[in-house]
Amino acid sequence: MLAIYRKYRPKNLSEIFGQEETIKILQSSAAEGKISHAYLFYGPRGTGKTTTARIFSKVVNCQKRQEDSSFFKKGEPCNQCLVCHQIDDGQALDIIEIDAASNRGIDEIRDLKEKVKTLPVYYKYKVFIIDEVHMLTPQAFNALLKTLEEPPSYVIFILATTEYEKLPATIVSRTQRFYFRKLTLQEITKKLELISEKEKISFEKEALEMIAYLADGSLRDAESLLDQIISLKGKKVTVDYVETILGKVGFMKVIKMAEFILKKDLKEALNFLYEINNEGHNLFQFNKDLTEYLRRILSLSLNPQLEKIFEKEISQSQLKEIKKQSTKIDTSYLIKVIKSLIEAYSQMRYNPFPIVPFEVALIENLREKE
Length: 370
Ligand SMILES: Nc1ncnc2c1ncn2[C@@H]1O[C@H](COP(=O)(O)OP(=O)(O)OP(=O)(O)O)[C@@H](O)[C@H]1O
Ligand SMILES: [Mg+2]
Ligand SMILES: [Zn+2]
Fold this sequence. Notes:
- By secondary structure, the protein is an alpha/beta fold.
- It contains 20 helices and 7 strands.
- The model has no long low-confidence stretch (mean pLDDT 92).
- Zinc ion (ZN) binds next to helix 4 and helix 6.
C-alpha cells in the first residue's frame, strides 16, 4: 500500500485545497503574531481539519520563524527546523493530540488540565488538538470550559469536529471558528491528478472523476480509494477498473437505461435490465444511480441554472449527457418514474428477487405506449 493520504498530506498551509478563506486568515494572523488561544475547526470528514491543525502547530512553534523576521511574515512553517521535523514525525512533546472519541470522560480532561498548567517543555506554545470534540461527556465539557475561559498564554487549543451542532454553545463561543467545506469534484480530481503524475500512475481522467464523485467531498476518501485501486490493479487507473472494484454498474449503463425510459421503450428497458442482472451487477446500486441520474435530468430541465451546482458534483461528461437528455422530457412522467424507482428500492430490500420490484416499476410506467 502506498498510503497516499499519508504521503501527500500537505506540509504547508498553502497546500490545503479548497479552504482559501480559512487559510488566508490563519496565515495572516500568524504573520502578524496574533494568535488566538482557542480555535474550532468544523465541517465534513476528510476536508483538512486535522491536517491544518498540525500545520498550524508547526507555524506557531517553528524555530526559523523566531529567528528570521521576514520569514515570520509568511505565516508558514519552514519544515526544516528541528521543531517542524518533530511535529511532522509525531514526536513533539508539546503538541498533544487527544481523540475525544476514545477519551470522552472527565478523567481525561483532568489530565489535560494538569498538562495545561505546566510550561511547554521545549517549544513556544503547547498545542492541544482535540479531535472529534463533540464526543466529550457533559462533565468533560464543563471541565474543558473552565480551561478555555482562561488558558495560560503559552497554550493553544484547536478543537476539531464533524458535528458542530453537538457542541455546547458555551464552548463554541469561546473559540475562533473556521468552517471546512466539502471539496468540489474538480478540486478532488485535481489533487488525484497531481498525485498520479508524481506516482507515475497512468489514468483516464474520467476514472479519477469517478473516484472524486464517490468520495463525496472528502479528499481522504478519494485518496484511499485511489490507493485501493492501485494496490489491486497496479499503477493504472481506468474507468473499467474503478467500476469493477467499486462495484458500480457503470455510468454508461445508467445513461442507456435513462434513454430507454425517456423514450418509453419498455421492451428494450426490460431486456437491458435482465442483461445487467445476468452480468451479476448490484441492482440496488443501479437503481440508486439511475434515480440520482433521472433526478438531475428532471431538475435541470426545470432550472437550467442548476448546471452551476451540478458542475461541482459530477464529471463534465456526465453533465453533458444530462444536459442533452434534459431537453426532451415529459415532466410529470419523469416524476412518476422517479417515485416508482424510489418505492421499488425499498421493496427490493425485502424481496428474495430484487429484480422484481425494479421490473414492475418499469412496466408500470413505460407500458402506456404499447
Ligand atoms: N483540504 C485539503 N487539502 C489537501 N489535502 C487534504 C485536504 N483535506 C484532506 N486532505 C487529505 O486527506 C487526508 C486527511 O485529512 P484530515 O485528516 O485533515 O481530514 P479531517 O478534516 O481531519 O477529517 P476527519 O473529520 O475525518 O477527521 C490528509 O492527509 C490529506 O492528504
Ligand atoms: Mg480529523
Ligand atoms: Zn520550522
